[in-house]
Automatic annotation (TrEMBL):
Its main location: nucleus. This is NudC domain-containing protein 2. It is found in: Chromosome, Centromere, Kinetochore; Cytoplasm, Cytoskeleton, Microtubule organizing center, Centrosome; Cytoplasm, Cytoskeleton, Spindle pole. Pfam families: CS (PF04969). GO terms for molecular function: unfolded protein binding. It comes from Grantiella picta. The lineage of its organism: Eukaryota, Metazoa, Chordata, Craniata, Vertebrata.
Length: 157
């Protein structure tokens, strides 16, 4: 079995003061750098449908209302190498037109170029799903790809 689309094609990250975030059609990934030696018991992470809160050793690192809704009981966080917290949120709306423009409402927005690249990536991921025999991981896209690109589902096969 081949690697998932995002592993073959790479990710389009949006840098932040605390780390970065990026997205696929189904998920939003958040990577937060924490002081080396951080232990799981030092971490307080609350993941709700539209809200996130993360504190390490009592210091708030990330808190606010998410850009869009997520599936509450499918959100997870892990501490890796005692210096990186990785949070994975499952989007409620999983179509290519649902490209988050920021992580939180009015905070940690992707700049216009990054936003454009994110939307292109999600559109190609959608094409990959619709055409499983083809590999779109190295493809370039131009033209109308906003809101998930053109809809070819009504065309006869």
């Amino acid at each position: 079995m081949s690697a998932p689309f995002e592993e073959r094609s790479g990710v389009v990250p949006c840098g932040t003061p605390w780390g970065r975030w990026y997205q696929t059609l189904e998920e939003v990934f958040i990577e937060v750098r924490v002081p080396p030696g951080t232990r799981a018991k030092d971490v307080r992470c609350s993941l709700q449908s539209r809200h996130i809160a993360l504190a390490v050793r009592g210091q708030e690192l990330l808190q606010g209302k998410l850009f869009d809704s997520t599936v509450t009981d499918e959100g997870t966080w892990t501490l890796e190498d005692r210096q990186l917290i990785r949070i994975v949120l499952m989007k409620t709306n999983r179509d290519a037109g649902n490209c988050w423009t920021s992580l939180l409402e009015n905070e940690y927005a992707a700049d216009p170029w990054v936003q454009d690249q994110m939307q292109r990536k999600l559109t190609l991921e959608r094409f990959q799903r619709e055409n499983p025999g083809f590999d779109f991981s190295g493809a370039e896209i131009s033209g109308n790809y906003s809101k998930g690109g053109p809809d070819f589902s009504s065309l006869e096969k």
